[in-house]
Design brief:
This protein is mainly β. It has one domain: Beta Barrel (Porin), CATH 2.40.160.20. The protein is built from one helix and seven strands; from the N terminus they run E-E-E-E-H-E-E-E. The chain has a seven-stranded antiparallel β-sheet with strand order 1-2-3-4-5-6-7. The longest helix has 6 residues. The relative contact order is 0.17.
């Protein structure tokens, strides 16, 4: 899976919590060979006691996911799925404190039927890792 994402901070609730809008274009490879488009709102916790040593953030995102074809992994676990599903993201990022624009990122990429709200009960999970540059 390869992802290109654009995000923008849109609000700060407290010194601890920021909100972002994010749009993603995802290309799946190997067992799945389709494109996916996601739009979500993220809440990001940015204050940890060790941030002077490793700047760390934790984010939770909620939005929609549209796949250009029904993902094969979802069909294997459930006879039916849909191209449009709910999207959840759970993310940890780690940066050098003096260069916060660079981060190592790990994310759980979850497409979900939200217990039948989207006409199905199942979805799919992918554990992803990568590098982020904020400009």
């Amino acid at each position: 899976m390869g992802t290109l994402a654009l995000a923008r901070e849109v609000a700060t609730l407290t010194r601890h919590i920021r909100f972002e809008l994010e749009a993603q274009v995802v290309k799946h490879f190997s067992r799945q060979d389709h494109w996916e488009f996601n739009a979500l709102v993220l809440g990001r916790w940015v204050t940890f006691p060790w941030n002077d040593y490793v700047y760390t953030t934790f984010a939770v995102g909620e939005g929609l996911s549209y796949a250009t074809e029904v993902p094969r992994l979802e069909i294997e676990h459930n006879d039916k799925s849909h191209r449009l599903l709910d999207y959840l993201a759970f993310e940890l990022s780690f940066s050098p404190p003096q260069h916060r624009e660079w981060a190592l990122v790990t994310r759980i990429h979850h497409r979900s039927g939200v217990f039948g709200l989207f006409g199905q009960r199942e979805g799919s999970n992918v554990l992803a890792a990568g590098v982020r540059y904020r400009f």
